[in-house]
Amino acid sequence: MATSYLLRCSSLVAVLVLLFSIGMTEGAIREYQFDVQMTNVTRLCSSKSIVTVNGQFPGPTVFAREGDLVVVRVVNHVPYNMSIHWHGIRQLRSGWADGPAYITQCPIQSGQSYVYKFTITGQRGTLWWHAHISWLRATVYGAIVILPKPGVPYPFPAPDKEVPIMFGEWWTADTEAVISQALQTGGGPNVSDAFTINGLPGPLYNCSAKDTFKLKVQPGKTYMLRIINAALNDELFFSIAGHPLTIVDVDAVYIKPITVETILITPGQTTNVLLTTKPSYPGATYYMLAAPYSTARSGTFDNTTVAGILEYEDPASPSPAAFNKNLPVLKPTLPQINDTSFVANYTGKLRSLATAEYPADVPREVDRRFFFTVGLGTHPCAVNGTCQGPTNDTRFAASVNNVSFVLPTTALLQAHFTGRSNGVYSPNFPAAPLVPFNYTGTPPNNTNVSNGTKLVVLPYGASVELVLQGTSIQGAESHPLHLHGFNFFVVGQGFGNFDPVKDLARYNLVDPVERNTVGVPAAGWVAIRFRADNPGVWFMHCHLEVHVSWGLKMAWLVLDGDRPNEKLLPPPSDLPKC
Fold first, then answer.
1. Which stretches make up the Plastocyanin-like domain (predicted)?
2. Which of 258, 454, 521, 534 has the most Cβ atoms closer than 10 angstroms to its Cβ?
3. What's residue 320's pLDDT?
4. What are the Cα distances from residue 83, in Å, to 31, 75, 86, 97, 263?
5. What is the DSSP letter of 564?
């Protein structure tokens, strides 16, 4: 009897242990409701109706842990088509939830809904979500905070508090009208009127002192700032007066900590930094400033500065959380607007943690090599037409390997999955420029680009090396390239034209930084490696929205592998229709 009782008890304990372990490893279900709706917002003394999620600007933060299943029901109450991209989420075998309109899904039409479901696998840190159709991400965006699994610490001292910092861009005009007009005229779009920190333009803009982001801190504490650049068209420098920043994570991947006065962050990128406050009350307040980095011609970008304020609690005040408004305000010094050498030195310092727990699994052998030029170009005007492009008979365009990508009218992933790709896309995207030229030298006389909907097809598991080469056509600019569905390792970068002999020898294959968005240097190149271990169709594009509109985008098709866990799952029943 006693033996039977003990056996039953031990079996029950075993079952409980098994259930507990399954619960711990499989993660929780995190459910969110996103109601896309018009909301009246006032900035710069001007009110307008903007597209928001749940009436919030920026939108709500999605919180999850590594291993969790995230379920977001998006209901579209606005007159625009909508889709949401979960920027940086790997979407392993769940490409239907990736979000770019006409790539992995048809958009959610007005009055319709779609449920995005994805599991966060092997990722922890800061990512973000945003609209992925036209320019609607100007106001439709928010943070994704992924905590480690329960009981797993950060590989750095735990902060006392964590704060999201989202940079954005604000137009007084309707951004859909801004890009629509630019595409009609062939010229550059009107630039934004302000940058924002967490939706607020701050005291350096007209009529905006009351709309200032304030980070309220206590002495002797450590704060982790989860910094996200959600601006449409501008890379940004960021600094806080009197407070060095220790970078511990970029694009939701831990790095070897480095301490800097200023960070550089492109649209699409995230950077987690530790800010340690002064040991005692300093008797001052401090500006945090963000301003653009650009080598483009003056007038083609927003050359303004956004300010937030770092405020210390005043211990001498009778109120426990009081702040003295009459203190001196100290300002940081940012690099010059076109300080490309600063950018190169900064990005060159970023290194993967590359430990046993967080290894840098860099592909050492390469199965497929690609060389893509990225940059601007032109389209001719319509017959007898006048345009506002580089010349009055041309329109601005942008391309990868001289192919300006044309969005299809049905989703690429659906066309692939159903075997109906004829007339939707062709699988012959060029692996290298068809006509080589001096990419960073004097531009060729003919700068016209071709149009097409072309994909690169990769077998499952292939190790890929891609060299992204900037060009000087219409001026040398930096291009932040984002690859959906993958992280990649930045194994090399440099200025001028890529040299496959000399530059290859200088690759870092030990601890290169791992990212999902990388800046192609102005008049330079960057080399990345990744493993094609995620079946589906994956968008790759510049994250400057104006360049996306002009065609600086393409897509990769990764075929199914042989094993069941190497195949794309079937589409959900509520996948939107075109």
1. 36-149, 162-313, 435-560
2. 521
3. 58
4. 18, 10, 10, 10, 30
5. G
| 6 phi, psi to nearest 5 deg | -65, -40
Residues 6 or more apart in contact with residue 478 via CB below 8 angstroms: 235, 266, 293, 294, 295, 340, 343, 470, 519, 520, 521, 522
**Phi/psi of residue 89, nearest 5 degrees:** -70, 130
- Average pLDDT of span 129-150: 98
Neighbours of 324 (CB within 10 A): 15
Close Cβ partners of 368 (under 8 Å, ≥ 6 residues apart): 431, 458, 462, 463, 464, 465
Mean pLDDT, residues 322-344: 91
pLDDT tens for 181-232 read 999 999 999 999 999 999 999 999 999 999 999 999 999 999 999 999 999 9
Planar angle of CA 202, 205, 206, nearest 5 degrees: 120
Q: Are 447 and 473 in contact (CB under 8 A)?
A: yes
Q: Which DSSP string corresponds to 485-497?
A: T--EEEEEEEESS
Tokens of 402: 């001289």
Q: What are phi and psi of 148, to 5 degrees?
A: -60, 165
Q: Cα dist. 531→362, 463, 465, 569 in Å? A: 9, 5, 9, 19
The pTM (predicted TM-score) of the whole model is 0.94
Considering only CA atoms, which of 345, 336, 270, 241 is closest in space to residue 61? 270
Spatial distance between the Cα atoms of 146 and 70, rounded to a whole number of angstroms:
11
- Residues 4-16 have pLDDT tens digits of 333 333 333 332 2
For residue 314, what pLDDT is reported? 85
Q: Write out the two tokens for 100.
A: 């770019």
Residue position matching structure tokens 């992995």: 104
For residues 527 and 323, the model is more confident at: 527
Sheet holding 84-87, edge to edge: 62-65, 141-147, 125-131, 84-87
76 burial (CB, 10 Å; 0-12 / 13-18 / 19+) is buried
Give the list of residues 6+ apart from residue 131 with CB closer than 8 angstroms, or none. Answer: 51, 82, 83, 84, 85, 137, 140, 141
Residue 25 confidence (pLDDT): 42
DSSP 240-285: ETT--EEEEEETTEEEEEEEESEEEE-TT-EEEEEEEPPSS--S-E
DSSP 149-199: STTPPPSSPPPSEEEEEEEEEE-SS-HHHHHHHHHHHTSPPPPPSEEEETT
Q: What is the DSSP string of 426-451?
A: BS---SS-SS---TTSSPPS--B-EE
Phi/psi at 341 (5° precision): -65, -40
State the DSSP H helix or E strand holding residue 10, giving kind and residue range, or none if neither.
helix 2-26
Other C-beta atoms lying within 10 Å of the C-beta of residue 397: 27
CA distance 148 to 152: 6
CA proximity to 143, closest of 157, 118, 162: 162
